[in-house]
Amino acid sequence: MLKNDSSKTVCTILTMLIFIFLGQGMRIALGAQQSPPLDLEFYTSIDGTVTFLLTLKDPSIKGVILKVRFPKGLKVLSSRPPIKSLSRNHAKWFVNVRGRRELKFVVKFNRSVKKSEIIAEALFKQPGTMKMQRVKAR
Asked: Is pLDDT above 70 for 133?
């Protein structure tokens, strides 16, 4: 009688362990294929214009912060939409998404800029998460 009960317990424990490992394996597999909920790209032109394109894949994102770092010698001539925070070599935009799928930012500098000189990243928060997530530009 004891032998039968202990074998059932061992089988139950083994079955539970198999399901736990399969579940974690599925989470890892799904996480590896998952892409970020937004894309950030930027393009430069010879006349000093830099265009940032932010494409939102997740409609639950309500707001985005775009942070751009550029070389110290550059001066911002114009920006569309207007920059909310500007220091010597940093610019920040705080944007309420309001259901839009694409956001476009255009900045005009006093001289041409190479793509390698600019570092851009978008910060956002998804509902149900505690931390801000970060996506760097490609």
From this structure: yes
Per the listing, tokens 């010879």 go with 46
Q: Which residues contact 129 (CB under 8 A, 6 or more apart)?
A: none
Strand order in the sheet with 63-69: 85-86, 90-96, 63-69, 119-124, 133-136
pLDDT of 27 above 60: no
Q: What is the pLDDT of residue 88?
A: 87
Determine the average pLDDT of the residues in 48-58.
Answer: 94
SS (H, E, C) 62-130: CEEEEEEECCCCCCEEEEECCCCEECCCEEEEEEECCCCCEEEEEEEECCCCCHHHCEEEEEECCCCCC
Nearest alpha carbon to residue 43 among 52, 34, 32, 35: 52
- The terminus-to-terminus CA distance of the chain in angstroms comes to 66
| Dihedral angle of Cα 96, 100, 101, 102, to the nearest 10 degrees | -70
Mapped onto helix, strand or coil, the DSSP state of residue 45 is coil
d(CA 83, CA 79): 6
